[in-house]
Write a structure and sequence with these properties.
- The complex is a heterodimer of chains A (282) and B (156).
- Chain A is of the alpha/beta class and 282 residues long.
- Chain A has two domains: 7-107, Elongation Factor Tu (Ef-tu), domain 3 (Beta Barrel); 113-277, 3-Layer(aba) Sandwich (Rossmann fold).
- Chain A is 20% helix and 32% strand.
- Chain A has helices at residues 87-94, 113-117, 130-142, 162-169, 216-228, 261-264, 270-273, and strands at residues 19-30, 33-40, 53-58, 62-71, 78-83, 100-107, 120-126, 146-153, 174-180, 190-191, 209-213, 236-239, 255-256, 259-260, 267-269.
- In chain A, helix 4 links the parallel strand 8 and strand 9 (174-180).
- The model of chain A is unreliable at 1-11 (pLDDT under 50).
- Chain B has a single domain (3-151), classed as Jelly Rolls (Sandwich), CATH 2.60.120.
- A four-stranded antiparallel β-sheet of chain B has the order 1-8-3-6. In chain B, strands 2-7-4-5 form a four-stranded antiparallel β-sheet, with no helix packed on it.
- In chain B, helix 1 packs across helix 2.
- The chains are: A alpha/beta (282), B alpha+beta (156).
- At the A-B interface, strand 10 and helix 5 of A face strand 4, strand 5 and helix 4 of B.
- Bound molecules: flavin-adenine dinucleotide and FE2/S2 (inorganic) cluster.
- FE2/S2 (inorganic) cluster binds next to loops of chain A.
Chain lengths: 282, 156
């Protein structure tokens, strides 16, 4: 049972108070992962920049940070792709269509797309890490940029957004490579970890930007491979995850070295992260 | 294909890139082009490893058969890469099955022949080692990441 606060009590622009939004639709993406389409009750468009996250509340259960994974088809709502790992994410994934939920944000610094649109972009995504990158990929292709996407999943049945991947694969200025960690004999694609795809990627290390999102250990291996391919730290951007509470730089829960991930990130340049992540010994 | 062409093909492959002509000629003496149709095996686990393969085109799946389980593909190897390193390391036995998943063209290098030449001309041995070690290092690193099973949901 959820306990929605009455809408009249809410000052919608206060970043610490959730506004009430509604679940307009949901779809199961892969096992344990759902995409939720969220729209404002009043119907006004919800905005975001690729790479930003929102704080979503399952009323009566709790609030969690979730990246925006796209816009609804009509452009007014936002899509979130969520893996049910604990109480709040399971409650969000279990919501019925039409149910209210709380929304704060979007917050944080997203992908550096102003820089990226003019150049080529190499995206390395692992598992659910494709979710916050999907809007960036769409933006790069829409702006006529060149895209290299290297995507790794655990197995063929855990590949996220297969329809989008097929569409991107057929885009003129895109190289899309998908790999899985293990497969049965019926799979004819790549098998191996996502970093093994880096040497196959056709990009110019002097002009390309790399956008990376996935489990932190995977990102560390990815950075190591990108550096070997000649990319400088300043051209590599990672989306970081840390526990969050306020999401607006007040509470310090998300502090990572000198950075507040909620405010300075979640997307941070690797030149700023290098002293905090140990890569050399991989 | 002319034997001279095969030498060019060898030197044009990323694994042998930059190999001096004299050494390429030595390798060529142990090499031949071979084609595999999808589904055909290059070698099987436990067999004597008699060749190592330099892939020109196609894709090869490396797999392990576990009794009672579906065959597990743990890596694919593509054009530009090599497969069958066990042929160069004692006891020269294949550690897994290798199966073409697409039309595949390889340069098959006879292992005993190349090993003998490496013994006779340590320059060739050293060149081969310099090329093999980074491949092994990359694969070790990839295996480490694969073992971490980073995409696993909690409770898996
Ligand atoms: C900026 C940011 C963006 C995020 N975007 C997304 C997103 O797009 N989709 C999404 O599904 N999640 C995303 N997350 C992660 C999400 O916030 C957590 O999964 C959530 O907070 C877990 O809350 P819970 O109450 O459901 O589980 P908890 O009870 O807090 O945790 C349950 C179990 O899950 C584990 N766990 C917690 N967080 C994670 C995690 N991130 N990955 C794997 N295991 C975890 C815990 O260790 C524990 O074992 C994001 C996090 C951040 C900081
Ligand atoms: S979550 Fe409070 S400072 Fe970042």
């Amino acid at each position: 049972m959820f306990m929605a606060p009455p809408a009249t009590d809410i000052a919608p622009r206060d970043p610490l108070l959730p506004r009430i939004v509604r679940l307009r639709g949901k779809r199961r993406e892969i096992r344990g992962v759902w995409s939720l389409e969220v729209v404002a009750e009043e119907g006004e468009p919800l905005d975001f920049a690729p790479g930003q996250f929102s704080m979503l509340t399952a009323f009566g259960v709790g609030e969690v940070p979730v990246s925006v994974s796209g816009r609804t088809r009509d452009g007014i709502g936002l899509v979130y792709t969520i893996r049910a790992v604990g109480a709040v994410t399971a409650a969000l994934c279990g919501l019925r269509t039409g149910a209210p939920l709380g929304l704060r944000g979007p917050f944080g610094a997203g992908w550096p797309l102003e820089e990226a649109a003019a150049r080529e972009v190499t995206v390395i995504a692992g598992g659910l890490g494709l979710a916050p990158l999907r809007p960036a990929i769409e933006a790069v292709l829409a702006a006529g940029g060149r895209l290299v996407l290297l995507y790794g999943a655990r197995g063929p049945s855990e590949i996220l957004y297969p329809a989008d991947l097929a569409r991107w694969q057929s885009a003129r200025r895109a190289q899309v490579e998908v790999t899985v960690d293990h497969a049965g004999p019926e799979w004819h694609g790549h098998v191996g970890v996502v970093t093994r795809l880096v040497p196959r990627a056709r990009f110019d290390p002097d002009t390309a930007l790399a956008l990376v999102c996935g489990p932190e250990i995977m990102m560390r291996f990815a950075v190591s491979s990108l550096r070997e391919a000649g990319l400088s730290d300043a051209r590599i951007f990672l989306s970081m995850e840390r526990n969050m509470k306020c999401a607006v730089g007040f509470c310090g829960h998300c502090q990572f070295g000198p950075h507040f991930v909620c405010r300075d990130g979640p997307v941070l340049g690797y030149d700023r992260l290098a002293p905090l992540l140990r890569i050399e010994e991989l | 294909m002319e034997i001279h062409d095969l030498e060019e093909v060898l030197r044009g492959h990323p694994f042998f890139e930059g190999l001096e002509p004299q050494l390429a000629r030595l390798v060529r003496g142990c090499a031949r082009l071979q084609r595999f149709d999808p589904g055909q095996r290059l070698f099987r686990e436990g067999e004597p490893a008699e060749h190592f393969y330099v892939l020109r085109r196609g894709r090869v799946a490396l797999e392990l058969s576990v009794p009672g389980h579906e065959t597990l593909v743990f890596q694919t190897v593509d054009a530009g890469e090599i497969v069958g390193i066990a042929a160069l390391v004692p006891p020269y036995r294949s550690l897994y099955d290798a199966r073409a998943v697409a039309r595949t063209v390889v340069i098959a290098i006879e292992a005993r022949c190349i090993r003998d030449k490496c013994e006779t001309d340590p320059r060739l041995g050293y060149e081969l080692m310099k090329r093999l070690v980074p491949v092994l290092f990359q694969r070790l690193r990839a295996t480490r990441l694969q073992l971490l099973d980073v995409y696993g949901a909690p409770g898996d």
